[in-house]
Amino acid sequence: MNITIYDVAREANVSMATVSRVVNGNPNVKPTTRKKVLEVIERLGYRPNAVARGLASKKTTTVGVILPDVSSTLVAELARGIEDIATMYKYNIILSNSDQNMDKELHLLNTMLGKQVDGIVFMGGNIEEAHVAEFEKSPVPIVLAGSIEKSQTIPSVNIDYEQAAYDATEAFIQKGHEKIAFLIGPLREPINAEKKLKGYKKALQDANIPYHEEWVIEGDYTYDSGLEAFERLLELDNKPTAIFAGSDEMALGIVHGAQDKGYHVPQDVEVISSDSTRLALMVRPQLTSVVQPLYDIGAVAMRLLTKYMNKEEVTDHTVVLPHRIEQRNSTK
Q1: C-alpha R_g of the chain
Q2: N or C: which end of the chain has fewer CB within 10 A?
Q3: Which pLDDT tens digit goes with each residue over 206-263?
Q4: What is the pLDDT of residue 149?
């Protein structure tokens, strides 16, 4: 039998309003009364009905989180940041995978809203006008994590992806490289086509190094695309001496692809990865990486969302976190 707030009030010989104040941490309850109510709650095994409380307060203390693939090391680290801050602010999370499918993303968005979540954290590689239209119609706040959209009207937390790509390319240039390849993520994603590629090209231009289209290879963030990219680069007459990879998995594929062909990293080819997840430390040599503060992106996105949900003042809805290059053993 479900124990109700009425049962607790009757057993403790107090009003239901008093029980409610105790459950919700209201300080306006006598210590002796609070102690008595808490003892009854413990003895009866009473659990507050979150749905009923949500209907009464018009808040469910639940946040929807839509991620492309929670099994990804990158996404998992970002999700942990979201979860930790949600717990700190006493929010529950409904987590879902979108598989980077727009129809599924929009379906999940509406499913979350149907569950009466108080807010949504969204991560997606390619945010179209259809997404923005749905975001703007949402009755609850939405914050993007590690994602950009062209209008910049939706609150978001990112790093400066253009500058990060510039810095990685320039790091190679400072080491004397002029033949620098870029294994980039899907070019349908604005982060890659409009930010990272632009930063790579600008670094070359600033150093008066010609841009070679054949040195830019589109991958899909996976280990296999790293292997395939190295095979393609080997076929070129003018082979690169340095490779910047848009993800740790792709960089790992490059390193293993090189080793399989008898090349040594960093002696024959130097590699810089992007993201600096745990994978960067698991490979040998360990990967020099652009450090994207994944945990912090998730944590700051969730904190920003709490501000909107609680009607706190927000001075900047577009947050750009710092990045850096961590020197390890895949570069000299």
Answers
A1: 25
A2: N
A3: 999 999 999 999 999 999 999 999 999 999 999 999 999 999 999 999 999 999 999 9
A4: 86
Q: Taking a C-beta distance cutoff of 8 angstroms, is the pair 159, 320 a contact?
A: yes
Q: What is the CATH number of the domain that holds 280?
A: 3.40.50.2300
Rounded (5°) CA angle 215-218-219:
125
β partners of residue 217: 183
Q: From CA 148, how far away is CA 133, in angstroms rounded?
A: 15
- pLDDT at position 58 is 59
Same domain, residue pair 17 and 98: no
Rounded to two decimals, the pTM is 0.80
DSSP-assigned beta bridge partners for residue 120: 64, 142
Strands (E), 140-207: 142-145, 156-159, 180-184
**Secondary structure class of 14 (helix, strand, coil):** coil
Amino acid 52: pLDDT: 54
pLDDT (0 to 100) of residue 55: 47
Q: What residue type is 92 in one-letter code?
A: N
- Is 99 inside a domain boundary? yes
Residue of 216, 82, 203 whose CA lies nearest to 146: 82
Q: Do residues 168 and 121 both lie within one domain?
A: no
Residue 140 pairs in a beta bridge with none
Instruction: Check if the beta carbon of residue 304 is closer than 8 Å to that of residue 81.
Output: no
Q: Does residue 140 sit in the same domain as residue 205?
A: no
* Together in a domain, 237 and 278: yes
Q: Is the pLDDT of residue 7 over 90?
A: no
**123 and 239 inside one domain:** no
Helices (H), 58-101: 73-88
Which of 47-61, 118-132, 156-170 is least confident? 47-61
Range of the domain at 25: 5-48
Do 189 and 249 belong together in one domain? yes
In a domain, 56, yes or no: no
Residues in the chain, overall count: 332
